[in-house]
Amino acid sequence: MSNIRQDKTNRLQVLNRRILVLFLPLLLLTSSFSIEIPGNSSILEGIDILFDTEPRMFPPGWYCKRIGAQALSLPKEYRTEAMDILNQAIAKYPEDVLFVYLRKVYVLKSLGFYGVPYGGTNTKDVIYLTYDDSNPEKTAEYVEGVFHHEFSSVLLRKFPKHIDKKGWEFNNPPDFLYGQGGVEAIKKGEASMDYDYDLLELGFINKYSQSALEEDINVFSQNLFSGGEQFWFIVDTFVKIREKARLTIDFYHQIDPQFTEEYFRALAYAP
Q1: If we measure between CA atoms, which residue out of 123, 105, 11 comes closest to residue 67?
Q2: Over residues 12-30, mean pLDDT
């Protein structure tokens, strides 16, 4: 047990050093200029963080009548908080993973597609998030979770062979079929990220994870990075959850060897 604690302590120290090295210049910048963050701010060189809507911020096809993409800029009073949330989220990834596979992050007041509000979405190398401190559902924890959720989709498109889909579906009930995707789940009001204890024994974290295979993987991904101690209690309690968590870790480990179960468990205890 003492060796395990020491290993976690060492990993936390490495993580803390990484955070300090990456974000000390940013902290100095925000402390000097307070809330006056520009609309097109770069959190890391090569990755743009944008808070304002732009004429061509979405792929052209998203502007069609059926999808009807809509967005509102994030008010200036929320931008420092939003930047802090992103600091915490992206510090959990190796620099090479961020620089190579992520180009932009939009943090906006609201997003809408297919006539329903979205908490986040993604394209090839762009992530779109919403943050509105006046909305109690869009807390810092929620926004960070959405970042990991959406970035996992970006990585799944880059590395489709890194995830064992047959092994994944083997852990589902024999007669189970995924739904019609995240859009339909949102329309039905089944987009909550809260743990559903009626589904854990079946290998699902919540109802939304049953909407599609990709969404199931997304939900596990966001919990690996930001689920905390409660997630690991669930992993250690439910066999099918443990197997899917293992497959998700293997996916990330093939992207970068830093991603191990020990690494993810250490994140749950980081300050």
Answers
A1: 123
A2: 37
The residue segments making up the domain with residue 182 are 159-271
| Whole-number Cα distances in Å, 228 to 52, 234, 266 | 31, 10, 9
Are 146 and 163 in a shared domain?
Answer: no
In angstroms, the first-to-last Cα distance of the chain is: 21
Rounded Cα distance between 258 and 79, Å, is 31
Place of tokens 């468990």: 265
Range from 17-26, 33-42, 186-195 that averages highest in pLDDT: 186-195
Residues 79, 48: Cα–Cα separation, whole Å: 14
Query: Are residues 147 and 18 both part of a single domain?
Result: yes
Do 100 and 129 reside in the same domain of the chain? yes
- Give the per-residue pLDDT at 25: 36
Per-residue pLDDT tens digits for 85-141: 998 999 999 999 998 999 999 999 999 999 888 999 999 999 999 997 666 567 888
Q: Write the single-letter amino acid at 135.
A: N
Q: Please name the residue that has the structure tokens 């690494």.
A: 263
Q: How many domains does the chain have?
A: 2
pLDDT in tens, 158-178: 999 999 999 999 999 999 999
The SS3 assignment for 47 reads strand
- Check whether residue 145 and residue 179 sit in a common domain: no
With 0-12 / 13-18 / 19 or more C-beta atoms within 10 angstroms meaning exposed / middle / buried, residue 47 is: middle
pLDDT tens digits, 229-257? 999 999 999 999 999 999 999 999 999 99
Q: Which of 158, 183, 215 is the last residue of a domain?
A: 158
CA separation for the pair 242, 109 (Å, rounded): 35
